[in-house]
Amino acid sequence: MNDILASLRLRALPILAAVLAGAAAAPVAAQTPAEGNWTTYRHPTGAFIEHPQEWRTQVTQLGIALVPPDFDPNAELIIALGESAFGLSGPTDPQIGQYFDVLMAQVAPAMRRAGQPSPIEFRGGRGALYEYRGVLNTGQSAQAQFHTALLAGQAIAIAIVATDEKMRQRERTVQRIFASLGHAEPQRDPRLVGTWQTSSTESESSTTGSVFFRTDSEYTLTADGRLMSRTRTQGNVTGAGGGTAVRNTEQQAAGSRSAADGRLFIFWEDGTSSSASYDTDGEVATVRLDGAERPIRLRRAR
Description:
Blueprint: H1 3-22, E1 38-42, E2 47-52, E3 56-59, E4 63-67, E5 76-84, H2 94-107, E6 112-113, E7 118-122, E8 125-135, E9 141-151, E10 154-163, H3 164-179, E11 182-183, E12 194-206, E13 209-221, E14 226-239, E15 244-260, E16 263-268, E17 273-280, E18 284-289, E19 296-300
Antiparallel strand pairs: 1-2, 2-11, 3-4, 4-5, 5-10, 6-8, 7-8, 8-9, 9-10, 12-13, 12-19, 13-14, 14-15, 15-16, 16-17, 17-18, 18-19
């Protein structure tokens, strides 16, 4: 699953911990959702699922957490994961299993994959079910299920990690959530359409010499969801003896994007993907890539 696999060891634990911390501090009495009392969650990329109306959705950098009203933070986690499907041959592609293996090694190291993925159906076609068994870090016997599909260029999984008791309570509901998975037209915030620019400089000097670079970036977003970027870097490195080396580079990239409710998703043509939070008044946009320390400030080109 491309770049997210390499970064998962740094991202998974703090994100999952934040999800659990944001939920109920203690379990409450078990509840069963009323048949038909469901609502639809629509993601900016166009993917959508149905879920019990009383369940809360919580956006995280890893995915969309699904939080029941009787959620037990010590016994369960339910989350919708998504990434670019570039390079994947289908829902049983070995890269998908490797992704889940890495994730489970971080969340519950004592849990192991149970056999090969099995076929499952959903609204858009056929997917695959990956199952894990073992114990949680608390010592409780537990299971994990990843209901997985490739849909409209995305790899999507509805995942549950839970104690055996919680799995029995949630399994049918999670299966129904996955079965409802579908895709519609992506959302594209019209305020982002146009060309945006940003510039930055980097300099450093010492007794051994000095470095100066200026980077100018331009991003063009079209109404039909295309995104083109061009970045030019110019600068020089000066040694203590006075010799100077000049560096001029230019990089270009293209992809597709979706955006809504302050969240931006980009699928680049090279198969990688990016996600970020954003805010704009139409003339200035502030974008913070997930995991980045500082936001990027862009101005609309004139």
